[in-house]
């Protein structure tokens, strides 16, 4: 196998892994209900952006909250949602959308982290 074939195989493996991940997301009913209820959201795909969010989570103490507390989001600010499973995507949404879909967002996984990248704050919601 020459260098060109190896590069092509690596690309195919990467595309296939992404396809498998997205298929798992489509079968996750709670995740699909969350996506449906959010007005606007963006699934993060860039590794640099995800690494930046993970760095904020790892370097800051998270304020722990109950799932029934909705005091975090400000309507005019963007937030990142990180669930406790590496199989789930990291999403970006605005505070208004997050507030209106709160129950669906925190129902996706037992632990949900809401990250305010602007203030570098992390909130941990335990289900």
Question: What features would you describe in this structure?
Answer:
Pfam families: CdiI_ImmP. InterPro entries: CdiI_EcoliA0-like. The protein has 127 residues and is of the alpha+beta class. The protein has one domain. 46% of the residues lie in helices and 23% in strands. The chain has five helices and six strands, in the order ααβαβββααββ. It has a six-stranded mixed β-sheet. The longest helix is centred in the N-terminal third of the chain and has 25 residues. The protein is globular, with a radius of gyration of 16 Å.
Shape: globular
Uncertain residue ranges: none
N→C terminal distance: 50 Å
* Average pLDDT rating: 87
Instruction: Report the total helices.
Output: 5
Helix and strand composition category: alpha+beta
Helix share bin: 40-55%
How much of the polypeptide forms β-strand, as a percent range?
15-25%
**Neighbour order of strands in the largest sheet:** 1-4-3-5-6-2
The total domain count is 1
Order of helices and strands: HHEHEEEHHEE
Radius of gyration: 16 Å
Structural key phrases:
5 helices, six-stranded mixed sheet, 46% helix, 6 strands, alpha+beta, 127 residues
């Amino acid at each position: 196998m020459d260098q060109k074939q190896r590069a092509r195989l690596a690309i195919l493996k990467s595309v296939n892994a992404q396809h498998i991940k997205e298929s798992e997301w489509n079968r996750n009913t709670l995740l699909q209900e969350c996506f449906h209820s959010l007005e606007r959201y963006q699934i993060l795909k860039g590794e640099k952006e995800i690494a930046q969010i993970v760095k904020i989570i790892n370097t800051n103490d998270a304020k722990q909250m109950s799932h029934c507390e909705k005091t975090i989001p400000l309507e005019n600010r963007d937030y990142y949602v990180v669930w406790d499973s590496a199989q789930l995507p990291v999403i970006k949404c605005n505070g208004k959308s997050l507030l209106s879909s709160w129950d669906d967002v925190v129902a996706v996984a037992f632990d949900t982290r809401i990250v305010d990248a602007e203030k570098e704050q992390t909130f941990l919601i335990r289900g």
